[in-house]
Amino acid sequence: MSILIKNGEIVTASERYIADILCKNDIIARIDRGIAPPKGAEVIDAKGKYVFPGFIDPHVHVHLPFMGTYAKDTYETASRGALVGGTTTIIEMCAPPRSEDTLEGFEFWMKNAVGKSACDFTFHMGVTKFDDKTEKQLREIVKRGISSFKVFLAYKGAFGVDDTELYRTLKLAKELGVIVTAHCENETLVAERCKELIAAGKTDPGGHYESRPPRVEAEGVHHLISFAELTGVEIYIVHLSCQEALAEAIRGRQRGVRVSVETLIQYLTLDMTYAEKPKFEGAKYVMSPPLRDKSNQEVLWNGLRDGLVQTVATDHCPFDFKTQKVMGKNDFTKIPNGIPSLEDRINVLYTYGVKTGKIDLHTFVNCASTQAAKAFDLFPRKGTIQPGADADLVVFDPNYRGKISAKTQHVNVDYNVFEGWKIEGRPSVVTVRGEVAVRDGKFVGKIGRGKFLQRKPSHF
Ligand code: URP
Ligand code: ZN
Ligand code: ZN
């Protein structure tokens, strides 16, 4: 079965032109003007619409055992939501707690996804401890197609690694050509400040911000960069939220450290006042690092424009408000951290980034697709539109007008932080390797169509 997408305006990170795209057997077979439809091909009229490469969310949690509970999505719900929102590849993190075996963790996460996803997927391997056995297992996991690790400098006692473990992980990654993604916050500062705040009676969600002010994150970035400088490994800072942390990353780059920066759609559009909402409503907005003062948004948008920030992800983390966030009703340190947004990233980035003139269309594609493909060894199979690439395409209708609501979302969570927000434009047709998965904005894909993407390390 082939698909011919006619007369769309193709936009990649560097090009913009009108042409037809013929997709055959999973890949883009030809791009040209006036392609005649082969016999039996489905023809999709994209006149007046953009055609973007399938978007990639490089930071998603589907299954996450965390803070005494679990993130609620399954691959079925998460991949439906991803595709309706224009995301055709997700990168989840295998996150076995410290007490569990690393290889068993990897196999568990694979089993959770294989045959159950409508979109393509791969994993960052979470390194939540490091010893001789773990080292052997990590070598094996890389052989099985994983080319990125994830470390936490936060979450003491759960996922966090100590400095010896961090150093040894980075050395191994350098040897194997693996890129290391990292959650950067100083875990000791967080733990001490949490104790002080709770002892002083500051128990509401607003206390979360005070427990991890910008310097806590900047210290984490500085710390990681020092270790990267001494090991030569390539690093990727996840969910960077503020000017202070970005300044540390830039300083590292100036010293020659190879460091990429990811921010989140939440940090670009929401600020700390949301987490201060009364009647525990603020708990919906509790994540780490926390939502920041609004002044940071301009810094992050400018960073995207200037190439100082490479990617926009979601750190999608679906915890229900009514049954899970409520665990921290009397103590903000017990609110499961995370804000879901996998389904909305592209529409919000387009509406509040492109339409407002903060970023142009090429930057939009670059930071939501191309840069993630490059950082995580998926380019040019993913992240661009060219013959030979996977036929993951988003036909985007810029004239659509609608509103975001938890009532209509596909991801499995009982709220949406963008509830009632207007969107201007949305994916109307989405293909996964040449098969239509979304039509007129509705999911029509196949569970099980999504493949595990084997990756080869390249970051030597
Ligand atoms: O608050 C967050 N970010 N929750 C998800 C876990 C993580 O830190 O990535
Ligand atoms: Zn994190
Ligand atoms: Zn995360």
- Bound compounds: N-(aminocarbonyl)-beta-alanine, zinc ion
Give the integer mean of the pLDDT values.
Answer: 97
Number of helices: 13
How large, in whole angstroms, is the Cα Rg?
A: 21 Å
Helix share of residues? 25-40%
Number of β-strand runs: 19
Low-confidence stretches: none
How does this model look, in words?
The structure is a single chain. α7 (214-231) packs parallel to α8 (243-254). The mean pLDDT is 97. The protein has helices spanning 75-84, 102-113, 132-143, 163-176, 187-199, 207-211, 214-231, 243-254, 265-269, 272-275, 295-306, 345-354, 361-375, and strands spanning 2-11, 16-24, 27-32, 42-45, 50-53, 55-60, 65-66, 69-70, 87-94, 120-126, 148-152, 179-183, 235-237, 259-264, 311-313, 393-403, 422-432, 435-439, 442-443. It is built from 13 helices and 19 strands. The strands form 3 sheets. Strands 1, 2, 3, 4, 5, 16, 17, 18 and 19 form a 9-stranded mixed beta sheet that branches. By secondary structure, the chain is an alpha/beta fold. The two termini are 40 Å apart. It is 31% helix and 24% strand. β18 (435-439) and β19 (442-443) form a beta hairpin. The structure holds N-(aminocarbonyl)-beta-alanine and zinc ion (2 copies). N-(aminocarbonyl)-beta-alanine (URP) is lined by residues 61, 183, 239, 287-288, 315, 317, 337-338.
Strands, helices and their partners?
Elements: E1 2-11, E2 16-24, E3 27-32, E4 42-45, E5 50-53, E6 55-60, E7 65-66, E8 69-70, H1 75-84, E9 87-94, H2 102-113, E10 120-126, H3 132-143, E11 148-152, H4 163-176, E12 179-183, H5 187-199, H6 207-211, H7 214-231, E13 235-237, H8 243-254, E14 259-264, H9 265-269, H10 272-275, H11 295-306, E15 311-313, H12 345-354, H13 361-375, E16 393-403, E17 422-432, E18 435-439, E19 442-443
Parallel strand pairs: 1-4, 1-5, 6-9, 9-10, 10-11, 11-12, 12-13, 13-14, 14-15
Antiparallel strand pairs: 1-2, 2-3, 5-16, 7-8, 16-17, 17-18, 18-19
This protein binds N-(aminocarbonyl)-beta-alanine and zinc ion (2 copies).
